[in-house]
Design goal:
The chain is α/β, with parallel strands linked by helices. The protein is built from 4 helices and 4 strands; from the N terminus they run βαβαβαβα. It has a 4-stranded parallel sheet, with helices on both faces. The longest helix is centred in the middle third of the chain and has 11 residues. The N and C termini lie far apart (41 Å).
């Protein structure tokens, strides 16, 4: 792996998620493991989430990528995730939904699990749900 290549490619697909996308993106930025790239895949949004995502890509050009389907079309979650994975550069791929928030040590913990269990091919986690909105 090259020095400038991220260890983890984080894929965040969104469709009209202006209400939550900033919290999701910030939770990736706040990770204690900083060897990541974030690929924001716009699935044809028509709300402010488009400009929010582009703002993050402009603010962090070496770490955050904005991607949209040709013609700004809506192709669904699977096609959007596949588009993000196709351009990913990391050794590992992590997926975050646009309305999710990661705890700061999530990536560090999961990378440690991979290092301690080299035969593992996937790591899944439990979730904590809240409804404060």
């Amino acid at each position: 792996m090259k020095d400038d290549q991220p260890l983890v490619s984080v894929i965040l697909c969104f469709y009209n998620e202006e209400r939550f996308i900033e919290q999701a993106v910030q939770s990736v930025i706040n990770q204690t493991n900083t060897s990541w790239e974030l690929i924001l895949v716009d699935d044809g949004s028509s709300d402010l989430s488009v400009s929010m995502a582009k703002k993050y890509a402009d603010e962090y050009p070496d770490r955050i990528i904005y991607l949209e389907h040709e013609g700004h079309s809506n192709k669904g979650l699977s096609a959007s995730r596949n588009a993000g994975i196709k351009i990913s550069r990391g050794q590992f791929v992590a997926v975050i939904d646009a309305d999710d928030v990661w705890l700061p040590g999530k990536l560090a913990n999961q990378i440690s699990l991979f290092e301690n269990h080299p035969d593992a091919s996937v790591i899944l986690e439990s979730s904590l749900y809240w409804y404060s909105w």
